[in-house]
Specification:
mainly alpha, globular
Amino acid sequence: MASTLFNPAEPIKRDWGAALQALRRLLADKNDTVQVFRITRALNGDSWQRNYRRLIASVDGGRLAYRRVELARRLSERSWVESFPEGSVGAAYRAFLHGTGYSAEGMIEVSDALDNYPSDIEHPYAWFRRRERDLHDVWHVLTGYKADEPLGEACVVAFTYGQTGGLGWAFLAAGLALRSLRTTGNAAFARAVWEGYRHGRRASWLHGEDYEALMDEPLDSARKRLGLDEPVRYRQAAARLASAGITGI
C-alpha cells in the first residue's frame, strides 16, 4: 500500500543537509548503500519527472511508458535471464549476477529502506524512478565499469549524472572522487570519474532503450550502436590502484 508521506507528482525540494549527512555515512561505511538512495532522494529534484517527459516525447519512448514494464520483476525471472545467448548483453548481465552475487531484488530491499518512498507507488514518475534504479546494474555491464569496487561505482554514478542530470549522482561522484584524492594523493581516480561523466554525456540516451530487446543484442554491437566509448582512464586508474595495493577507498 503506497505511503501518504510522498507524492511523486510534486517536484522534490533539494535537501543539501540530508545529502551531506548521507554522504558522510557512506564514506564512513561503503557497504551502507542505503545512503546512495538518500542522496539521490535529497538532490535529484525533478530529474525523474523531467526524464519521464523526455521519454514520452518520442514514439518508442511513449510505447515503453505505456507498457510500463517493471524491470526489477523482469530481471528477477531466472528462466529469462538464463535464456540469453552467449555474447549478448543479457549473457554479460547474467555473468555479472553470478560474479557479484547481486540481484534486482537486493536493489529493491535497499531502496525500500526509505520507508517514505515504497516501491509500490502507482504513478508514472515513481515508475520511472524505479526504472532508473533497476537499470543501474545493467549500465555497469554496458559501460564496463565494475560494480564490486569503489572506482567502478564512482564511474557509473558519474555516467548516470551525464545521462540524467540528477544532481544526487553528481554529488555522490564528486564525494567519492575527493575522498580518493585525499586518501591516495593521486588524481587517477578523479580523472576516471570525469571520463565516466563525459561518456554519459556523449552516449545515446539509455533510458530510451527497450531493455527486453536490448538484452538479446550482442554486447559489442550494442555498445557501438549506443556510442559507449571504451573506459580508458578507468582501466588505467584501476591498474594503478591495483599495482599500489589499494583495494578500497
